[in-house]
Fold this sequence. Notes:
This protein is α/β, with parallel strands linked by helices. The chain has 2 domains: about 5-195 and about 300-340, 3-Layer(aba) Sandwich (Rossmann fold); about 215-295, Tyrosyl-Transfer RNA Synthetase. It contains 16 helices and 5 strands. Strands 3-2-1-4-5 form a 5-stranded parallel beta sheet.
Amino acid sequence: MKEKSILTGIRPTGNMHLGHYFGAVQTWKQLQDREEPFYLEIADVQALTDHFDQPDMVHKNVVELAIDILSCGIDPKKTNIFIQSMVPEIAELTVFYSNLVTIARLYRNPTVKTEMHQKKELFGDKGEGITYGFLGYPISQAADITAFTGVLVPVGEDQLPLLEQCREIVRKFNHIYGETLLEPEPILSDNKRIKGLDGNEKMGKSLGNAIFLSDDEDTIVKKIMGAVTDSNKIKKDDPANPDICMVYYYHKLVNSENLNVVCEECKKGKRGCVACKKELIANMLKFLKPIQDKRKYYLEHPEIIEQILKDGTEKAQAKAKNTMHDIKQSMQIDYFNRQDEAK
């Protein structure tokens, strides 16, 4: 019976923001306490699929992302944090799996189609400039998952098509080469996508509507003071609808103790938007303080980050090598081992 494990990953395309924290990190903190080994991949190879011309940025973000992950409470004693490019077996598996997936199937993947549309400036209006690396990144993700016998994969609903593509690859591999791989299963997070300060359904760096874990006080003040509120509230004493106010939305994330008071005062016109934003600023700074204190510590001790990444990557390499041994045996490309056995 193969050892089950949990595999998740994040691309190093920038610092983590509140959307990452509430949408993913909280789930990771729960998963690292389970019995199964937990592997957390910093997916630099996948980041290069649409940032191939910015290697300096990707390199810098790997370290920054590791600092954010650890500052949020991910424990390196429980979680193997590793760098994707430092595990060559993933790239090798990607090549093997690429023989099992047609170009047409990759183009049909809903997640790929959506991201192609979002990146028209890079790939063209009709995707005429799309690269093999970007189109094939679902294959790389399948290699990520199966390299660690990752049968449990925390994902959002928008990522389910990627996981289904992995399951297809596993089934086809097992059909051709014999039962070797386990089909992964999703762990759907209860946390929904976090909205941006502008009311956009998605918080994102490129949208300019995110609060980052690394933001300083002046930046946080400026961002929250510009947050979208109920446009029907003209004067301070006008009643408002907190359900369409982004300030109240963020109060719900970081200020559960005083939430009923905030809601009722808003509805009755007893709370002005400026005062409400100032209260949110105070609560946001209080919420972020322990995270930012840890960030400061890790920034002052880069040798600790390097050692954690090195240790996690070595453990990931060992696991991937064992998986690759089984896969090569099934594919009958373990030539020297077979010759030794014949002797």
